[in-house]
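Researcher: Structure for this, please.
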Amino acid sequence: MDLLIVRHAESEPNVAGTINSDPKRPSSLTARGRAQAAELGGRLAAQQIDVCITSQLERSIATADIALAGRLIERRVMRELNDARAGDFEGEPAIEHRRWLAVNGLAARNPGGGESQLDALRRYVRAFWSLASMRDERVLVVAHGMPIAWLRSARELAATGGIGEPDADFADPRVDFAGAPDRLRRGELIEATELLERFVDQLE
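Model: Predicted structure, token format:
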């Protein structure tokens, strides 16, 4: 199994600098985001894709819609790939959330019924295990910056012997909007997921 995983294209909340983690709230793509998604489609045009998985959020689904337009590819939604539930920070400036995270850390749950970044990472680990168990030959995932940043970090650590801890920066996950997809073989995905799972267990 090959996994192709890519961040959604630029959305209106991204440009506004606001938090959007609730699938019921709109997060439509900007004009630039729609162009990014179309460019992603061009990069994927010659590649076999058996199934495409998105989060529940509009920006993820819309990116896949544009990138795969005209192709008969099975589509699934995996809620475990959603961004961390923001609670009281929903719709608020992202910079305020970043300041709060800097003080409170990964394990602190967002006030108002939200999740912590650690809670979200647990979900991502479950999602990665589900992906690793799939028998489809080529799987495309359109997700968000944080799960990709965690997966990249763990993959790099696994490739160098697993020394150190995975890391992902909420303020800047350093994952391009609808950029070149990261590609992982099943074995690479399993190794990275095992490392992330150990990291989570150590923090509990």
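Researcher: Any notable elements?
Model: The chain has a mean pLDDT of 96. The CA atoms of residues 83 and 163 lie 27 Å apart.
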